[in-house]
Design brief:
The chain has 108 residues and is α+β, with helices and mostly antiparallel strands. It has a domain at 32-106. Helices cover 41% and strands 19% of the residues. It is built from 5 helices and 4 strands. It has helices at residues 2-13, 22-30, 47-52, 77-89, 102-105, and strands at residues 34-39, 56-58, 67-73, 96-100. β2 and β3 (67-73) form a beta hairpin. It starts with a helix and ends with a helix.
């Protein structure tokens, strides 16, 4: 769903005099790798914080870990890990992470 909003934002820029086309921006974004972070074993009472930050719940039925998860751009990884460690785990946790390419993210 977040990807739909990103697409709408890019398409909306078309009329704002920006130099690059929406397709160019989508292509550039597709070349950047992202990291999927799984907040496994997070305290139950932190679910509202995770949800408010854009994390989604996976019940484990699709092969992913049973955990709250999110995807972040590679440059934002350290900031997200710092937030998880300070606000959710409250210790130097090392959550499960998977680096994703565009092929991984949009595979059917």
């Amino acid at each position: 769903m977040d990807d739909c909003f990103a697409l709408l934002e890019i398409l909306d820029r078309k009329g704002s005099g920006q130099a690059s086309s929406p397709f160019c921006e989508l292509y550039t974004a597709s070349q950047q790798s992202r990291v999927r972070i799984f907040a496994e074993n997070s305290p139950y009472d932190s679910k509202d914080q995770l949800k408010g930050r854009g994390y989604r719940w996976s019940d484990g039925s699709d092969g992913r870990p049973k955990a709250w998860w999110t995807e972040v751009a590679e440059p934002m990884l350290e900031e997200e890990l710092l937030w998880l460690r300070n606000e959710i785990y409250r210790y130097e946790a090392t959550p499960l992470m998977r680096r994703l390419t565009a092929v991984d993210r949009f595979r059917a």
